[in-house]
Specification:
mainly alpha; elongated; 43% helix; single chain; three-stranded antiparallel β-sheet; Alpha-Beta Plaits; 2 domains
Length: 169
C-alpha cells in the first residue's frame, strides 16, 4: 500500500493590533509540575514566615505575606543571569572579513564577540543540481556574542548599515 506524503498547510497568524509579542517571564528555565509545586511551596512558606514574624513583633501581620514574592524574585533573577551568560549568533550573509570588522569594533567597546564561519556546503548544492559543478559558493560568517551584550551589538551593527531586527527581550 502506498502512502501519500502531503506537506503541512500553514495559515497566516492573526495580526495583533498594537501589542508587542508576549514574552516569557522565565527565559531559560522550563518548570514541570514538580518545579511549579516546589516554587509554589517556597512562596507559601515565605508568606507564612513573613506573617509569623510580623505577628510576633505586634505589627499588622498581613503585609508579611508580601515576603512570598522573594522566592519568585530569586528564581527570576537567577534565570536572567543564566540567560545573560548564554551565547547567541547573528548572520546577515556577510563575508568573514566583514564580520571580523564588526568583531573588532565590538571588542573596542568591551564586548566579547567572535566570528563563526558558515560552511558553504557546496557538495549538497551540487547534489541537488542547484549549482553547476565547479562553481563555488561564497563563504559567509556569523557573529557570536553573549545575550547581555545584545543592545550594544545591535547599535554597532546599525551604525555599520546592517539591518537588525528588534530583539524580543
Amino acid at each position: 500500500m502506498a502512502r501519500s506524503r502531503r506537506y503541512a498547510e500553514y495559515s497566516a497568524a492573526p495580526l495583533r493590533s498594537g501589542r508587542s509579542p508576549s514574552r516569557p517571564w522565565l527565559r531559560t528555565a522550563q518548570l514541570n509540575a514538580v518545579g511549579w509545586a516546589a516554587l509554589l511551596g517556597l512562596c507559601a512558606a515565605a508568606a507564612g514566615v513573613g506573617f509569623a514574624i510580623l505577628r510576633w513583633t505586634g505589627l499588622p501581620s498581613w503585609p508579611g505575606v508580601a515576603l512570598a514574592l522573594a522566592p519568585l524574585g530569586a528564581v527570576v533573577l537567577a534565570d536572567r543571569k543564566r540567560w545573560a551568560g548564554m551565547t547567541t549568533g547573528f548572520g546577515w550573509g556577510g563575508s568573514p572579513d566583514d564580520v571580523a570588522g564588526v568583531v573588532a569594533a565590538l571588542r573596542s567597546e568591551g564586548v566579547s564577540a567572535s566570528v563563526e564561519l558558515d560552511g558553504p556546503a557546496l557538495d549538497t548544492w551540487v547534489e541537488l543540481g542547484v549549482l553547476p559543478a565547479g562553481v563555488s559558493m561564497p563563504e559567509t560568517a556569523s557573529l557570536t556574542y553573549r545575550n547581555r551584550d545584545a543592545r550594544r551589538v545591535q547599535a554597532v551593527l546599525r551604525r555599520r548599515g546592517i539591518d537588525v531586527p528588534e530583539p524580543l527581550w
